[in-house]
Amino acid sequence: MTKNDIWRLSATALTKLTRTGELSAEQAVQRAIDRMHQVNPDLNAVAEDLSVEALQKARALDQAVVRGASPGPLHGVPVTIKINVDQKGHATSNGVVALKDVIAPNDAPIVTNLQNAGAVVIGRTNTPEFSFRADTDNDLHGRTHNPWGRHISPGGSSGGAGAGVMAGIGALAHGNDIGGSLRFPAAANGAVTVKPGLGRVPAWNPSQPAERGILAQSMSVQGLITRSAADLHLSMPSVIAADPRDPFHVSMPWRGAPCDTSLKVAFTKNTFGYALHPEVEKALDTARDALVDAGYLVTEIDPPDVFECGRAGYRALMGEVLTLMKDDIEAAGSQTIRNIFEVYFQEFPPITDTDLIRMLAQRTHYAREWSLFMEDYALVLSPFLPQPFFGPDRDTDGAEGVHEVLGCAVYSYAMNFLGLPAACVPARLAQLPKGPQPINVQIAARRWREDMAVDAAAAIESRVGQMCLPLWDRMDAAL
């Protein structure tokens, strides 16, 4: 391995070197920074370059080890942080021009946990305005591009995170997810992620002027986007460390008890009347076969009504947004985001007033139905989107565009409303007329069993391979 190859290493491979002293934290971070400087001018995934600060922290880690300190589990691993989460001394702009000078007084819990584990933040990644699009563009930092090509959106709202980590800008990328914002970028870029369940990762922004709405609190989660499932198993135990600033955090170990028998998986291709693209169907079949070969018991059966649950949950969220956020969007948002929200409210008619209170109660019914179903089926393998990922700015194309981007994504936001964990993993590299494109599938898991979802993602990955490898061949040919 040459020094120029270090940026290619997974976090798992990298820590085997940094924790034994074969590679210094400074060397690992420097190579990631070099890669960032090489590819980010074209991608615009990283909105704030923290190279100077990162190298100082990496050197401090190395010096601490020399003095006898034990290296952390993520010693020297370069990571990125999304610009909607607090990092002390940096702007938590959320992609909004009016918030560009909101400087965080302290770190959010996930930043604290990553740095306590020895990870080094090399940059802050781009997000759409208010982190409320499945695409990534804003008037403050501009558009992020997908490393596979400009025929595909990078996803959102953690689009900078997904594009950056797949392009080699750090081994781990922080993101968050209220309706799919970890999984959309994973699907767009061919990355791997797991949306943690409710309460699994502590969350809070010290810069926020008021508490968020109850659905924003209970549907939104913090997590990581990676290039391999193994890196989730490596990093998530550090990310879920308790923090008293989140009073509803559930402190549990990453690994749950092993199952006594082979895991049963519910497999569904149901897309509720939306056309299932042949490439998505092939990806689902590949994922199913991979799980069968790995010893899972896969049965084709529909879980409880995802469509009803997902649409109800997102309509409730839109009711909360209409009540608590609309004035801010109107005052500080661009015309583009204001237009998109108007169409959101058409696609998902907001549930408000007494009906919203009733829907918050009904949420427990949906969650109970899934809990009972998952007593028999520990995992649910499903599409993530029924079609290959859409192009940039598709959600600006009025009702038709928003319907394609979010309307059909019920498997995504249903998991947020239910509070269940869900992994998203590539299962096929499709060769489409506009160019190659990864196709991801989703694996939902029992409550508190993110580890099971990641195990299944690893089994699929072992069949399909890591999408970063053909991507880097494509990028190298273009450089």
UniProtKB/TrEMBL annotation:
EC class name: hydrolase
Species for this entry: Ruegeria meonggei
Gene that this sequence comes from: aam_2
GO molecular function, one term: aryl-acylamidase activity
Record-given protein name: Acylamidase
Origin: domain of life: Bacteria
PANTHER family: AMIDASE-RELATED-RELATED, GENERAL AMIDASE-C
Enzyme Commission number: 3.5.1.13
Domain Amidase: start-end pairs: 28-452
UniProt keyword terms in alphabetical order: Hydrolase
Gene3D superfamilies xrefs: Amidase signature (AS) domain
